[in-house]
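Box 3.1 A note on notation
Throughout this textbook, protein chains are presented in two layers. The first layer is the amino acid sequence; the second is a token string describing backbone geometry. Keep the layers aligned when reading.
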Amino acid sequence: MIRSLVIAVVVLSAGVASAYPQFQLSRDQTCTGCHLSPAGGGPLNENGMTMIEGLSQFGTNPQFFYDALGTPSWLTLGGDLRAAGGFNSAPFKSLVGIPMQGEIYAHATYKNFSLYLNVGARPSENGNEAATHGWSREHYLQWQQNPGETDGLFVRVGRFMPVFGLRFAEHPDYTRQFGGTQLYSETYGVAVEYIAPKWEVHGTGFIKDPIIDPVAHDNGGAVYGEYRLTDKLSVGGEGMITKSDDDKKYRAGITSKFYIPGPDILLQGELQFVNQVIDAGGAPKQLVGYLLASWFVKSFLVDVGIGDDNENLRIKDLDRDCVDLNLHWFATSHVELIWNNRYELIGLGQGGPSGAYSLLQLHYRL
């Protein structure tokens, strides 16, 4: 029970930068509107560079190292550095400093093909530390039906995170933490994805990482589809089946986004049902959901989120609930300051002590 109390402990591990789903519908219809990857995240395209320059308070050249290197048109370079520090109560109170991310990446294209490689620091593992300080978290070969375009068919083979759900950038958000795409659960797979202005679908088959000891020891498959009813409203559905040496998990869920242009607010939510079938006996039913309201104010982004995770619906006061407040300031095209806050309860205060954190995070995009 004590282990399940404190989601704040998760923040003490390194994190990685992903795309912000807050920008979909509010700034563009698809993730490929700003990113080279069909899943979002990683290198920005020309539109993404323009968007982040216009959103930031002081602008600056958005290119890699301010375009000082002059890379050829077929090569896109980038990287992310992140660190955080602040107060943590889990439930023991302490001051923390967290080196979260240090990664560089390259995206090379030739006709319909592209190669993506991400290289960076990796947290150590007990008993194998010398071999785990560096790695390539993501690397894949991609074929794209329409090179240089934002829609069409994409096929990827390599190591990456399966596209599933809303893909929140903050990895402690409940539908990421407990919804099948937890931190460092990238693994080897094949993805077939189609993106159109009105709809998109992503199907991924994956295996347990055969090279390193992974976070998720699963083989399986995932599918996610999204339909944009209007340019301000989308709905989605998802399903995932995974099998490990000890259990099988069946996930099904729904997502939705609604953009209100007047106040520049985006509402998005995800609800997921999980049936875990344990080989030794038992089949706990889990329900996990997260709702996020995002408000754009000039160069600031304010996020208010609420989450609920009940890892076994049959057990009273086992569910955990959280309230999140995140404030982003896009100072320049490369510098972002983030203030992350969370307060969490177990069983609405009836299942154990509460936890909280307040962290100031610095993100520098190379």
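The first strand starts at residue 75 and ends at 89. Residues 1-14 have pLDDT under 50 and may be disordered.
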